[in-house]
Amino acid sequence: MVNGSIGFPEMIPQNRKTTGSDRIRAGEIENTDASFETDDKPEEACGVFGIFAPGKDISRIIYFGLHALQHRGQESAGIAVADGSSILIYKDMGLVPQVFDERKLSGLQGDLGIGHVRYSTTGSPCWENAQPVHKAYSHGTLALVHNGNLINSKQLKDELVRGGRKLSSTSDTDLVAEKIVWYSNSHIEPAVEKTMKMLKGAYAILIMTEDRLIAIRDPYGIKPLSLGKIGDEWVVASETCALDIVGAVFERDVEPGEMVVITKDGINSKQVIPAEKPSMCVFEFIYFARPDSYIYDCNLYSARKNMGIELARESSVDADIVIGMPDSGTPAAIGFAEESKVPYGEGLIKNRYVGRTFIQPDQTLRQLGVKMKLNPLKGAIKGKKIILVDDSIVRGNTCRQIVSVLKESGAKEVHVRISSPPITYSCYYGIDTDNSDQLIASNKSEEEIRSFLGADSLSYLSLDGLIKAMGLEKDHFCLACLNGSYPIPRTKELSISKTLLEKEKV
Question: Is the CB of residue 257 less than 8 Å from the CB of residue 275?
């Protein structure tokens, strides 16, 4: 076991309670607003990865799986491993390579394990809310990781508080773990089943005890969760790209409402909750998932390129060059150029080593804004009429800065094309747009947005064009942020559960 003498948190054994000194060793940062981010995108909740493979280098496999999922969360990372008799956990704030090194991974040995990268949509970004969470229950201990967002958090919290439970964090993940413990007078599987029936919202969850790995998914299938195999050993991940990077072969998705249990004897499945109408988050296709991942047997790079093709059919314009917003707009920009016959080229160079920083920029650097990440190729821009393709606009601030940078670099015209419909409604299932006031398209007309951006023209892909580009039935997706049709019935709690969780812990 590694101690915390060099400024990092201890590896936490399953039966040890964390203290204030642990939080100091963990390097918890009070002012997380100091992170210098210029992205103006909808943000996802998390990425999860799990494996049951006795005799394999578990922690290293999980590390590379999490590295492939880093785009799903950059606030914290954590790994838990088990050896049949105990669970060991290490987690901290930061990116996967910042949290883990050879020394830490060498201390995480076992037959099975789970890992997590986090972006907070419920619960503040602090060490206590990093995952995996760990709990003692009647037959041992468990560790749990979660991607998604619950919409009945207040109800769950009230029930636990009335029952005398103490919550160790402000995340809804902690509520799920506590519920499982609450029902664990029997073995773990029945406790997980009972808990699943109490949860409302989006969840793709991995639960690990000393000797088994359990994967569960909400009955609407809002968040992706895939099963793969390395030889005879099972792997579970948020995306197929994480299976690819560790040499696993995709087998199938965890089905909506299904519980999959993996032990040394193999894999067992049970449909705990009847599946509802398929409601995969459409932004997995538009932006969240990596372009080399597959969802519904569809390659996302191809889908995004098709979005650009449809966008060109709907809103082509006279121009000299098509450029994409690196990197999320690139596939659609290539498709747009192919269909419109306007040449594709690079106009913005991305600094791929900026990442998250907790160093406060001074006022001069802050005014440079987007140039910290994106720098224009002035020779390719000057005197040109440019089509700038991006996948989405949330608040519009970054796109506005980019348009300004392009024009300052000599662009004659800048025409903005967005390869998704306007985001006009709040999301309550794990995207950080629960406040519609943040959404520029919910408060401004398309012409007003164009004026705000400073663009010469602006067009979005239509909803029909989006569906056509994905090549799947409209009923396969949650489109709530685009059309206000929520798959899970809305209640008053939707607008208050997050706020209440942020209040002082019990």
Answer: yes
- Residue 497 to residue 505: CA distance in whole angstroms: 14
The dihedral sign for the CA sequence 253, 255, 256, 257:
negative
What is the DSSP track for 104-173?
Answer: HHHT---SEEEEEEE--SSS-SSGGG-S-EEEEETTEEEEEEEEEEES-HHHHHHHHHHTTPPPSSSSHH
List, in order, residues 6 or more apart from 427 with CB less than 8 Å away. 42, 433, 434, 480, 481
Q: Tokens at residue 150, please?
A: 């619950």
DSSP codes, 455-490: -SEEEE--HHHHHHHHTS-GGGEE-HHHH---SSPP
In terms of Cβ atoms closer than 10 Å to its own Cβ (0-12, 13-18, 19+), residue 17 is exposed
pLDDT in tens, the chain (506 residues): 333 222 233 454 443 333 332 322 222 223 333 333 445 665 556 999 999 999 999 999 999 999 999 999 999 999 999 999 999 999 999 999 999 999 999 999 999 999 999 876 544 557 777 899 999 998 899 999 999 999 998 898 888 888 888 776 667 899 999 999 999 887 899 999 999 999 999 999 999 999 999 999 999 999 999 999 999 999 999 999 999 999 999 999 999 999 999 999 999 999 999 999 999 999 999 999 999 999 999 999 999 999 999 999 999 999 999 999 998 999 999 999 999 999 999 999 988 775 554 455 565 665 566 777 889 999 999 999 999 999 999 999 999 999 999 999 999 999 999 999 999 998 888 776 656 778 999 999 999 999 999 999 999 999 999 999 999 999 999 999 999 999 997 665 443 333 333 332 22
- Closest by CA to 196, choosing from 176, 214, 182, is 176
User: How far apart are the C-alpha atoms of 460 and 469, rounded to whole Å?
Assistant: 14
Spell out a b/e string for 239-264, using b for 16 or more CB atoms within 10 Å of the CB, else e.
Answer: bbbbbbbbebebeebbbbbbbbbbee
User: What does DSSP say about strands 87-93 and 112-118: parallel, antiparallel, or unpaired?
Assistant: unpaired
Q: Could you tell me if 126 and 94 are in contact, meaning their C-beta atoms sit under 8 angstroms apart? A: no
Helix orientation angle between 300-315 and 330-340, rounded to the nearest 10 degrees: 50
Active site residues: 46
What domains sit in the chain, N to C, each tagged with a CATH number? 45-279 (3.60.20.10), 299-473 (3.40.50.2020)
Rounded to whole angstroms, how far apart are CA atoms 479 and 500? 26
Matching residue, tokens 């160790």: 168
Tally of CB atoms within 10 A around 351: 12
CB atoms under 10 Å from CB of 427, counted, come to 23
